[in-house]
């Protein structure tokens, strides 16, 4: 009666290639908004990409428990030397992050929440993490496929939870092949990729004219196909 073809997902790790989610930020940052006199007793030196940024320690310790632990304890070399090296970080992204700690700013469509979010999550700047999460919650309804996939990648990186992930996946429209061709799709974990595939397939089958018994057989077969691909217990449903 019909042919069901299942394509196994191949996950490509593009974690090191997330640069395309960012853009040049340094030009948007006014350095004098967060720097201080390097000879000040409260000055801390951040070393990023071989360059030094002089920042008041209060800016770091009042916003981040991670920096607070580093700087307020002589057990850590950072507390002794007042110098923090940030290997693997980018100068413009760190400057962007510091600017948000210094001045009150809204999160809007022009905000690079992907660059900002990664640093907020790593250094546990909870109030800014919540602002980013709130922005995603308010804006996913008008987001296109590309942006929704970016939001999903962000929810994984920042551990926003399965509830928001379920909502974002439910907003994805179009055929799975179209969705999976976006470069942003490859940034997602295998679990999220398979979750998207299952939901998409479930929606597709709802629109096909099968008897209830045939639908149940198809659902059982589909679930067995996907069983070894992820740990997420999401059933195919025709409700």
From TrEMBL:
Domain BTB: 42-103
SMART domains assigned: BTB
CDD domains, per the entry: BTB_POZ_ZBTB_KLHL-like
Record-linked InterPro entries: BTB-MATH_domain_protein, BTB/POZ_dom, SKP1/BTB/POZ_sf
UniProt superkingdom: Eukaryota
PANTHER family: BTB AND MATH DOMAIN CONTAINING-RELATED (PTHR22743:SF165), MEPRIN/TRAF-LIKE MATH FAMILY-C.ELEGANS (PTHR22743)
Protein name: BTB domain-containing protein
Species of provenance: Clytia hemisphaerica
């Amino acid at each position: 009666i019909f042919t069901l073809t299942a394509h196994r997902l191949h996950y490509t790790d593009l974690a090191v290639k997330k640069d395309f989610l960012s853009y040049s930020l340094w030009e948007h940052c006014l350095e004098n908004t967060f720097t201080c006199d390097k000879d000040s007793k409260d000055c801390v030196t951040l070393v990023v990409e071989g360059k030094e940024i002089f920042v008041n320690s209060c800016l770091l310790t009042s916003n981040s428990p991670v920096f607070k632990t580093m700087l307020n304890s002589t057990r850590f070399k950072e507390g002794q030397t007042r110098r923090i090296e940030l290997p693997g970080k980018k100068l413009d992204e760190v400057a962007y992050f510091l600017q948000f700690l210094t001045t009150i700013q809204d999160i809007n469509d022009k905000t690079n929440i992907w660059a900002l979010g990664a640093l907020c999550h790593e250094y546990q700047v909870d109030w800014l993490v919540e602002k980013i999460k709130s922005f995603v919650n308010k804006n996913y309804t008008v987001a296109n496929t590309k942006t929704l996939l970016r939001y999903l990648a962000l929810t994984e990186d920042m551990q926003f939870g399965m509830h928001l992930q379920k909502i974002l996946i439910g907003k994805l429209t179009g055929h799975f092949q179209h969705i999976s061709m976006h470069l942003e799709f490859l940034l997602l974990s295998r679990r999220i990729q398979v979750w998207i595939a299952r939901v998409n397939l479930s929606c597709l089958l709802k629109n096909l004219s099968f008897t209830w018994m045939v639908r149940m057989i198809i659902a059982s077969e589909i679930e067995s196909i996907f069983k070894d691909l992820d740990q997420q217990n999401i059933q195919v449903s025709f409700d």
